[in-house]
Amino acid sequence: MRNSHKLLVLISALPSSYTLASENSENINFKLSGNASLASEYRWRGQTQTKNDTAFQGNFLLNHSSGFYISAFASNVDFGDEAHLELDPFIGYSTSFNMGKKQPTLDVGMLRYNYVGKSDLNYNEYYIKVFLTNLLSENDNFIPSISYTNKYGGEAMSKNLGEDINNWYFNILYTTPFAQSNFGAIANLGYSKANKEIYGGKSENNFYDWKVGTTYNYKPMNLSAELAIIGTNIDTSGFTETNKKGVKNAAVFTLTKYF
């Protein structure tokens, strides 16, 4: 019921940043960066978070030269209850390794899914990601990741099912530019696995989600546009038409301003 890749986008795609240098040492500094987006829909792991309506979203990332960072993501949401604002803080650490021509970056951290007005939905998730660049073509990005929580859906889910829900999420994201143009492609495949049958009309305990799209970067204004098809294979037996629409394939357009 939440978002994904928001921190990933900040770390790997921001074109600019603001450096806060220490007065006592040139080796200790901070970099502040962020973005604001307008999306035709907010989808998290293939599922709508806004009942297929538009979303306004924001990110910020504060990096320290040591590799530690803090971040936050905000978006409007609509689950049909008191929650209308998602505000997720992150804390993590990233470091690069020298492996010849390849220099992969390892990123580990924790995020808190936080819903203003509906705190029983809140829970922590822990993640590990690896960033690989120039893998298949120049300036491409290949990012596998694993996320885990032992409290999926927060207290609301635990009370409803009578036990805490463990959930794993495995994801592969690939982005690449088209030659020397400002256009590019993005592809994403995810797999969710819970310890309880909580997904779909047949109460399955797992599902796949995907995303395939194209991007355009307008560098003079630090703007990025993305048009993607996003969906899942969640079984919708017994779903209302609205709920079916929220997990089936949909075209999502996002316009993002980086700063």
TrEMBL record:
Keyword Signal among UniProt keywords: yes
Pfam families to which the protein is assigned, alphabetical: Gcw_chp
Keywords: Signal
UniProt xrefs under InterPro entries: CHP02001
Cleavable signal peptide: 1-21
Superkingdom, taxonomy of origin: Bacteria
UniProt-listed NCBIfam families: gcw_chp
Protein name (Swiss-Prot/TrEMBL): Uncharacterized protein
Organism listed in the record: Acinetobacter venetianus
